[in-house]
Amino acid sequence: EEYVYLAFRTAPVNHPDAETLTLIDMILDNATAGLINLNLNQRQLVRNAGAHPRQLNEHGMQFLYGVPRDEQSLEEVEALLLEQLELVKQGEFDDWLLPAIINDFKMNEMSAMENDNARVGMMRRSWTRHQNWDEAIRQIERMEQITKEDVVRVANKYFGEDYVAGYRKDAPHDVPDIEKPELANVNIDPRRRSDFAQSVLSTPVEPIEPEFVNPESDFERRETSFGVTYYHVDNPINDIFNFTITVDFGTHEDNTIRLATMLLDKAGTADLSPDELKQEWYKLGSSMSINVGDNQTDITLNGLDEHFETSVALLFELLKAPLVEDDEVLEQMKRIVLLQREDSKKDPDTITSALVNYNRFGEESYFLRMLPSEGVMALTIDELLQRIRRLLDFEHVISYTGTHDLDTVQSIMEQHNPVEASIKAPPAYRYLTAREPEETEIYLFDREGAQARIRLEFGDVTFEAVEIPVVRLFNNYFAGGMSGIVFQELREARALAYMAAAQYLLGYRADDQNLMVGIIHTQTDKTHEATDAFIDLIDNIPESPERFMLAREAALESLRTEKIGFRGIINAVRAWERRNQEPDPRETYYEVFLQSDLDQVLAFHQQNLKDRPMLVSIVGDTSRMDLDALEAIGKVVRIDEEMIFVD
After folding, report:
1. With contact defined as beta carbons under 8 Å apart, do 190 and 550 qualify?
2. Residue 639, class by beta-carbon neighbours within 10 Å (0-12 exposed, 13-18 middle, 19+ buried)?
């Protein structure tokens, strides 16, 4: 897609104006109620726009970006972005916005401090920015002292006419000619370690004992007689809640549901316009989002428990009676959706996803199940919003993590979403299985470029819980990051890859199919070599006791250190339930890892992976490939755009 990118030079991180500049960025774009969010995105004056800062020790920058609608020039988008900056410079933003931004920062900081990485990141930043600790932890306190007048003064100081405008245009370009050099073979010795690594690994440490989820004390599960199930976890740290409604209904059942959620984002209620609704969410410190999958829709609300009931009431007001009064809102959304689809057909990552989906599932590919363009243009506001209203007619799951007890949560739910009789069972889960070729087949999509994207995969048996420990060991051994066989052999030793990865993927739920996947991006004229080498590596996995010991230790360390935090418990428990496992099965894995050996991994490979016909998907410039060499690997099938994308 085409876009415009504006860059202003501002101030370094320790400058007196730095925190005011941070507030200006949030006034422009806080993802919900900023000037860009409401004036441009909400009103669909552009396809998408936003802003973000970057403050370094030596200097600072403020970026703004915008993606044009159809028949909209980049110059017009640039002018719209500059108009939002001008509003800040004139002080034309609501007085409530500054304290709401401060509350947003406070909540984000509280949430981040639940996480070890975030705490260490704060320490690291204070050191690299040459800040003493007392100064670093009082940033929000200093922001609270900033006034609207300060914002206007600083905006006028930095956002003048001296900026850079970068235009990304959709136009032909010359692909660079990259010669393939002759490279000597490199022997990889996994036992070799640097002196520094040796010194780190020899440091005495107190062994960490693993901690597992206790179903008696760590969560509650409650079923009701009318089809609503509750999961509850206490928040012992702060008063930030996570709340999710999950309905087992997705795009497999209705290919308009994702479009309906897009329209919902532009909707208001009987009492609040779309802009006012967004502002109300932000004032409450709450955020709402909807995620639609093939078989499931999640409606998520996050915020402060003191505003939990108010936020929930607002959510159900929107879900039950969403209001879009202007037909032009939907018409503009349709045009944006279709333009995004056209742009996606030029994007190598999207092309690769569509090709892989088609190779794996044929006509059941997600990209072919999408509503055709003609169907999109025929949609009405009423039928889309009706999809939203009907979601909660199905049995659903309420997940809550916070400071309220389960009785309180259930009472609030029943007050704002009363369910007086049994509701409908959701549609049956749609299990898709990968097609099984008699021989390796290569689906080839011609796209100009210096890099080829290659995906190798094949479907295996349906999920069984007993496989999990050996699969973890295999994944660590075969493709465990930079120490795995895939990375070291394909990238380091043979220089065949920009990136290389592999994983044996277990089914999402019981009776779902397992899948072996390999991914490699390579120089286009190395396509056949990379494909052949990867297949050989999967078929003839090297045997290395030293690598296995590293893989087993990594598996053990992950269980010792991956204590599931309180916010992750419900998702973990529900994932185990989908696979018919009792919490916490990791305790069993730990004992298996302790007794494991290389022979188990090799036996798994022999039984499940060796010499399997593969589905190979390649996106790249076929004029630079040795097609005869590819034909020697497998049957080559040319694929074009019309075969993998819906009209």
Report:
1. yes
2. buried
Backbone angles phi and psi of 521, in degrees to 5:
-110, 130
| Structure confidence by residue, pLDDT tens digits, 13-66 | 999 999 999 999 999 999 999 999 999 999 999 999 999 999 999 999 999 999
Task: Please identify which residue in the block is written with the tokens 């988008």.
Answer: 77
Angle at 443 between CA 439 and CA 448, to 5 degrees: 150
* Tokens, residue 638: 């040319």
3-state SS string for 574-602: HHHHHCCCCCCCHHHHHHHHHHCCHHHHH
* pLDDT value, residue 33: 96
* Spatial separation of the C-alpha atoms in residues 286 and 288, rounded to whole Å: 7
Rg (CA), the chain: 27
- By CB atoms closer than 10 A (0-12, 13-18, 19+), residue 338 is middle
Closest C-alpha to 277, from 322, 242, 241, 307:
322
Cα(first)–Cα(last) distance of the chain, in Å?
A: 19
Model confidence pTM above 0.90: yes
The sheet carrying 163-168 orders its strands as 48-55, 60-67, 3-9, 163-168
CA distance 149 to 97: 14
User: In this structure, is the dihedral angle defined by the CA atoms of residues 351, 352, 357 and 362, taken in order, positive or negative?
Assistant: positive
Beta bridge partner(s), residue 165: 6
Kindly report the backbone phi and psi dihedral angles of residue 380, in degrees, each rounded to the nearest multiple of 5, phi listed first: -120, 160
User: What pLDDT is recorded for position 177?
Assistant: 75
Give every residue of the chain whose pLDDT is below 70, as ranges: none
Cβ contacts of 465 within 8 Å, gap of 6 or more = 579, 580, 581, 585
Q: Which residue from 236, 232, 228 is spatially nearest to 219, judged by alpha carbons?
A: 232
**Whole-Å CA distances, 404 to 107, 234, 400:** 18, 8, 9
In this prediction, residue 493 carries a pLDDT of 87
- Torsions phi, psi of 243, nearest 5? -140, 130
List residues bridging with 620 in a β-sheet.
446
Token pair for 435? 């097609």
CA dist 631 to 12, 228, 538, Å? 57, 55, 19
pLDDT tens-digit profile of 241-279? 999 999 999 999 999 999 999 999 999 999 999 999 999
